[in-house]
Amino acid sequence: MNRTKRQNNDLIQFSNSNKKRKLENQKYYQNILIPNRHRIKIVRLSSNPFTTDIIFSPPRSILNFIHLEIFTLDNPVNSICSKIEKENLNSVKHLYIASEEIGHNCVNYFPNVKTLSIKNKFSKSIDSTIATLQCMIPLMQLTKLIIECFIFPIKNIINLLYLTPNIHTLSLNSLLLNDMNKNSKKQNEILQYISKKNKIQKLVLNWRPSLSNIQFVVDLFPRLKYLKVEMDRKEIKQIIQFLLSKTHNKTRNLCIFKVPKVCLKQTKILIKSENLLNSYSIKYINKDLHFWW
User: Fold this and answer.
1) What's the CA dihedral at 12, 73, 71, 202 to 10 degrees?
2) Is 21 in contact with 49 (CB distance < 8 Å)?
3) pLDDT of the chain along its 293 residues, tens only?
4) Cα(93)–Cα(77) distance, rounded to whole angstroms?
5) In a 3-state reduction of DSSP, which class is residue 283?
6) Long-range contact pairs involving 123-129 (C-beta distance under 8 Å, separation at least 24)
7) Domain coordinates of the chain in residue numbers?
8) Which end is more exposed in the chain, N or C (fewer Cβ atoms within 10 Å of the end residue's Cβ)?
């Protein structure tokens, strides 16, 4: 059992491991979980049956995790889902799914979740996965979606966004536009619907997107105000020119992270030479270039 206790004692974080013995789990339950049950904010569970029984069998400690905010599901999920009771997890605001499969026996265990994080590409079809997600959490009330997977297909992202119109913050690790079928009438209708209905104002792209990627997201998220992105230095000029030329969009804050300080001077020269803006602010902070206009 891997456990971490923060120095300020405000948080106890724990996870399960099949390598630990039953006796160690019992001691952990008695010496860590019970004394700190009112302060635990993060729970990460895998498939250790003994620990799962301890935490989810009434009237055990999960009933007293009144400050529980983040819940992580690892492989396999089925053995855990069958033990979770809906009323136990009302305090959870962030569901983190680290598994590649979600058990079908999961029901609406997390009624107040606002943030959904997805670590891996799902092994089953997106339709099946979304159907299960709809049983676990109310997708309509999600306000933040974080997709950490580097091979998460764009069609899956689109299908998720179609059912989560109240998302205002989106974080992606890739955007595989090659999966798009530009001749699909249904897909184009979905894209138009998302563009019209979505409320995304903050977008984080954790890779170096091409200009075509940026063009796609700006068109798809017309209410976007803040864009944080890593850029290839060869693309910076074109992307900035594009963003500043889109006078109808609402983007007014750009953060380019992991860039050398010379980009600060180069960006200023670009704006002046091309007469792109009259009024703006730009700063270089901790290897990130922050730009407001």
Assistant:
1) 120
2) no
3) 444 444 343 444 444 444 555 666 667 667 777 777 777 787 776 655 565 666 665 545 565 677 778 877 776 445 555 655 555 578 889 999 887 767 655 555 788 999 999 988 776 777 888 888 888 899 999 999 999 998 888 888 999 999 999 999 999 999 888 777 777 888 899 999 999 999 999 999 999 999 999 999 999 999 999 999 999 999 999 999 999 987 667 899 999 999 999 999 999 999 999 999 999 999 999 999 999 99
4) 19
5) strand
6) 126/153, 126/155, 126/156, 126/159, 126/160, 127/159, 129/102
7) 1-68
8) C
pTM: 0.82
Q: Which two tokens stand for residue 55?
A: 């935490």
Residue 221, token pair as written in the block: 């998220």
The answer to whether the CB of 222 falls within 8 A of the CB of 215 is no
Interatomic CA distance for residues 119 and 147, integer angstroms? 6
Q: Kind of pairing, strands 115-118 and 94-97? A: parallel
